[in-house]
Amino acid sequence: MLAAAGISAVFKTHVERRAIAELTVQLDQVLAGLVRAEDGLVLERAPADPRFARPYGGLYWQIRTDGQLLRSRSLWDMTLALPPDVLADGQAHTHRLPGPDGRPLLVLERSVTLPVRLGSGTARAAVAMDADDLQQARQAFVTDLAPYLIVLGLALIGAGWVQVALGLRPLRSLGARVAGLRAGRVARMGTDWPSEVVPLAAEIDALLDAQEADIARARTRAADLAHGLKTPLQALMGDAERLRAAGAPQAAAEIEDVVSAMRRVVDRELARARSAAAARTAKTPVAPVVRQLIAVLRRTPDGSRLHWTSDIDERLIAPLDAQDLAEALGALAENAARHARSRVQIAAQAGADSLRITVRDDGPGIPDARRDALTDRFARADQGGGHGLGLAIASDIAEAADGRLDLADARPGLSATLVLPAALGHEPKG
Question: Where exactly are the transmembrane stretches of this chain (predicted)?
Answer without folding.
Answer: 145-168
